[in-house]
Amino acid sequence: MDDFEVLFSSKFTTEFECFPIDQQEKILSFAKTFQDNGLSDFSIYEGKVTPSWKGGTISDKNYQYALDNDLWHYHVGIPEYEKIHDKYKTSDWLLHFQWPNRGNEICLVDLYSHYTSGGEFYLPPETYLGYVEEE
Predict the structure, then answer these.
(1) Which has the closest alpha carbon to 107: 10, 17, 26, 33?
(2) Of the CATH numbers 3.30.2310.20, 3.90.400.10, 3.20.20.70, 3.60.110.10, which one belongs to the domain with range 5-114?
(3) CA dihedral 104, 28, 33, 30 (to 10 degrees)
(4) 1 band by pLDDT with thresholds 50, 70 and 90
(5) pLDDT tens-place string over residues 28-73
């Protein structure tokens, strides 16, 4: 059996302690599912799991930033799951994580609304990242 590990970036660790218990529980539920199963089968997750560069174009700076930093996100169900699709559920808030080399380890980096107030897809700033791409 593979060992799957969940890390928290330093900034996310600090913020996590301030989240309401129900939000902490949703985050920890995702972490536990990852520890038990990894990410080889997205269908075992209640919310949608997807790479944060998906849907972007290669020339888009956000696409490259998300790709370079192995950024993914999970629809965590905060405040609740709203849209139910055939294979997954979506929510307003996303749990952002890094999944380098699609290996056995992820790093949780941020919890934020799907979109910024300007209507753009939100990506966590570099200060939130646990793994920083080396040049």
Answers:
(1) 10
(2) 3.30.2310.20
(3) -90
(4) low
(5) 999 999 999 999 999 999 999 999 999 877 778 899 999 999 999 9
